[in-house]
Amino acid sequence: MNLDASRKKVFFIVLLSIGFTIAMYFVINFSLNQQSTTFARLIPEEAYIIILHDVFNETPHNLRNITFNDLKGKFTAQYVMVDGDGTIYEANKDNHETSRIIGKTESPLTGGSHFGWEILSNGTKYYVDSTSGQIINMVNSSEI
Question: Which domain holds residue 15?
Fold first, then answer.
């Protein structure tokens, strides 16, 4: 009788482990499929302000006075994914799906692949990571 009770305990522990593993699979799967709220994504106007600060050395005081209406017509923006080898893909900003290759540039300055904004201003393309706000690449007008 003692052997039968031991088998029931082992069977119960195995079933409990399998159940816990399945439950964790569904929790993790659900978690990974949700939009991330911990990382706010930049909008194109914010990416352009980063360019004004990092490239054109605008002071924070001057940048505070800029409104989004002031920026209208100063740049065009497209959401892209810049691959580690410099291949540029058109991307969907809501779900990060890439659709087609739209260009090629040098590898990102920061390495790796990045989703971000391609900002075209005065004949120069700037690539700004949509999460970190880092400028990951820029292509001068003579190279476009």
Answer: 1-34
